[in-house]
Amino acid sequence: MRRVIFNQKGGVGKSSITCNLAAISAAQGKRTLVVDLDPQGNSTHYLLRTPAGELRDTAADMLEQTVAFTVFNRRPDEFVHASPYDNLFVLPSSPELDFLERKLEAKHKIYKLREALKKLGENFDEIYIDTAPALNFYTRSALIAADRCLIPFDCDDFSRQALYNILHEISELQEDHNSGLVVEGIIANQFQPRASLPRQLVKELLDEGLPVLPVRLSGSVKMKESHQAGRPLIHLAPKHALTLQFLDLARLLNGESVDVEPLS
């Protein structure tokens, strides 16, 4: 399963959701890979505890092979790094992704990521793809390469307007490039259950027929502590309320039933 977490709006929790769902998958015994296509490298730093700019053998190095006239291309799995956690691996980001983007786009390499992830899928049960907050070459490549798409939503009106644009762009991409891509759901993140506006926005989206998932992720300083420690919540605070919400979300995505508190 190849799953991309995408939103054109920044600050909605893409990297946090990507890494914590992946860490849960790995903790449950599945060989899991995080592909970091955001040049900022937040997922890379979170899981490998090393800034993306200090690493060699990155996603940029892998993709550069597709435009370089090299005789001996390396296999995609040669760019994968083991994290400190069992079964959890990272194809790390690099600032070089920014410089490489135009070259890849000019050479029409939009399908090369899909080819690489199909090969990597032979060695991994789950692949999670983190993207930059922009509909750029890498994001389109990820959406073309993915089976499923999750859209974080941070419960404000700006994010709501961006959401409609995202769904339109995904619909066009499904029609032109990846008819098998499924929008798995919209994740209400940093949700405040006692505040009226978040509840109202989520209810209105549901009334419009949008696929808002019933599991909502609350805001918590524990997530910031998790980032600082470089430890996903399942390892840092396995019984914390936010960790339990992530576990419920993982169960939901696996097709299991979960008990959720209804919107009041």
How many domains? Answer: 1
Strand residue percentage: 5-15%
CATH class: Alpha Beta
Please tell me what the overall shape is.
Answer: globular
Strand order across the largest sheet: 3-4-2-5-1-6-7
**Span from first to last CA?**
34 Å
| Beta strand count | 7
Query: How many helices does DSSP assign?
Result: 11
What fold name stands as the CATH topology?
Rossmann fold
Q: Which runs of at least 5 residues are low in confidence (pLDDT < 50)?
A: none
One letter per element, helices H and strands E, the order comes to EHEHHEEHHEHEHEHHHH
What does this structure look like?
The model has no long low-confidence stretch (mean pLDDT 94). The protein has one domain (2-253): Rossmann fold. It has helices spanning 14-27, 42-48, 59-64, 96-106, 112-120, 137-145, 157-176, 196-207, 221-229, 233-236, 241-253, and strands at residues 2-5, 32-36, 81-82, 88-91, 126-130, 148-153, 182-188. Helix 1 runs parallel beside helix 2 (42-48), helix 1 packs across helix 11 and helix 5 (112-120) packs across helix 6 (137-145). It has 264 residues and is an alpha/beta fold. It is globular, with a radius of gyration of 18 Å. The longest helix is centred in the middle third of the chain and has 20 residues, at 157-176. A 7-stranded mixed β-sheet has the order 3-4-2-5-1-6-7, sandwiched between helices.
